[in-house]
Design a protein that fits this description.
single chain; alpha+beta; Nuclear Transport Factor 2, Chain: A; Glucose Permease (Domain IIA)
Length: about 450
């Protein structure tokens, strides 16, 4: 998302010291008194004497010429961008997507080397950046949790780093929607931030295949944080609880962070949702060919087994490791073209073929974590178009991932059971209330 701002004289905002709060203010919104505010839940009122028939929707797409100022590419013009952090992202990759100049990119990376915030890039959260048309970076902000802000601002020709607590009002918000075409479209129609959809996909990525499991009519309810600073700017925070009805079956997740250790998502019973294997190695694509013993090969012109799953996606789409492991093979292999094979343990391995390229840091023997970007979609080898050929191998034999029982995730430790149920009780109650409210409204 890009916001245009007219040229102005830049003043250093680093001279304005932010007040450090010893404790973040949190305000819970009472759901019962606020339900009419949540348009994404339902609408309880009907305009008197109005027709109950649905008004047909009509979408009109029209090309509009850019305003004269945009077309002129005024070098003093500035833009604000909102860039969502993806699974496995690095700050260098984010700067590349923002099209920052190489000179500013190098200066920025030198300035932030060793920064605590840059080692805590959380998928689904937002980077705010101000740039000029030529790729000059002016300001970059990131709220990385617990009311702390990372900010880098260009002063003259040098970047200055500032990491400190900020004053803000954190609220707990709720929303819900129904999927008609895609999760992102449903989130947008419910007037929720787009990052909510990305977080939901990450939360359920080990239990739901969003390429083929989502159905029209599936619905979701979400509880999430939103922080507003003194300047009125809002930062969407973490999803705290979510319920997804998929194929009429409910799947729930709540966030829990022990006093020591990283936070994660669990079922209300304490089962971890971070399973050893992701359901798919790509975030956004479609399955073009499934696992089958008989498929007509478009290049060989004959019937043969297809012991993998093909995901159609544009060239350059990032490919994720579906599980922790080690690089067993990286290189060219016959019909696979550019291929990566990851060894996960003595039993499981996975293969990723037809890649256009590999992650630069990837070498044989490199340790890989689940969700890391290992390569990019291409059409090398025997491929008629850009797609990823993915295989899950058990004891060296390709198996259909949708038909085998995958290893289970470790549940929450027994010593945290009491505090887990105490901390998540309120979140689960909110999901219950929203579910009952929505069902009552539909009846």
């Amino acid at each position: 998302m890009i916001y245009y701002r007219s040229p102005r004289k830049r003043k250093s905002i680093l001279a304005q010291k932010l007040t450090v709060f010893a404790q973040k203010k949190v305000r819970w919104i009472t759901l019962l008194s606020s339900i009419p505010l949540f348009g994404m839940v339902t609408a309880f009122g009907i305009v008197p004497d109005s027709s109950l028939q649905e008004i047909p929707d009509k979408k009109i797409v029209r090309a509009l010429p850019l305003p004269e100022k945009f077309a002129s590419s005024d070098p003093e013009m500035t833009f604000w961008h909102q860039e969502s952090i993806r699974r496995g992202d690095t700050i260098a990759a984010i700067l590349a997507r923002l099209e920052i100049s190489q000179e500013d990119k190098n200066r920025f990376l030198d300035t932030v080397r060793g920064s605590r915030a840059m080692s805590q890039l959380k998928p689904g959260e937002i980077i705010h950046a101000e740039t000029r048309p030529d790729g000059e970076l002016l300001t970059l902000r990131y709220f990385y949790g617990n009311g702390e802000q990372f900010q880098v601002e260009k002063i003259d020709d040098a970047f200055e780093l500032n990491e400190q607590s900020i004053e803000g009002d954190t609220r707990i918000l709720v929303g819900s929607g129904v999927i008609h075409s895609s999760l992102f479209a449903a989130v947008d129609k419910a007037d929720l931030p787009s990052t909510i959809a990305s977080q939901i996909i990450d939360i359920f990525s080990s239990s739901i295949d969003f390429h083929r499991d989502i159905r029209k009519g599936d619905r979701f309810t979400v509880v999430y944080e939103s922080t507003q600073d003194e300047g009125g700017k809002t930062q969407v925070g973490r999803v705290l609880a979510v319920e997804l009805f998929n194929k009429e079956k409910s799947k729930r997740a709540v966030y829990f962070q022990p006093s020591a250790g990283e936070g994660s998502y669990y079922t209300p019973e304490g089962e971890s949702l971070n399973k050893p294997f992701l359901m798919a190695p790509l975030k956004f694509s479609r399955i073009s060919s499934g696992f089958t013993q008989a498929r007509y090969h478009p290049i060989l012109k004959r019937w043969r087994a297809h012991r993998g799953i093909d995901y159609a996606a544009s060239k350059g789409t990032p490919v994720m490791a579906t599980a922790d492991g080690m690089v067993e093979f990286k290189g060219w292999q016959k019909g696979y073209g550019n291929l990566i094979v990851l060894k996960h343990d003595t039993q499981y391995s996975s293969a990723y073929g037809h890649l256009s390229g590999f992650d630069k840091k990837l070498q044989k023997g490199t340790r890989i974590r689940q969700g890391d970007i290992i390569g990019f979609v291409g059409s090398t080898g025997m491929a008629t178009g850009p797609h990823l050929h993915y295989e899950l191998r058990v004891n060296g034999v390709q198996r259909d991932p949708s038909r085998i029982v995958m290893p289970a995730a470790q549940p929450i430790s027994k010593k945290y059971h009491a505090v887990f149920h105490k901390q998540t009780r309120e979140l689960i109650s909110r999901l219950d209330l929203l579910r009952n409210t929505r069902f009552a409204a539909l009846n």
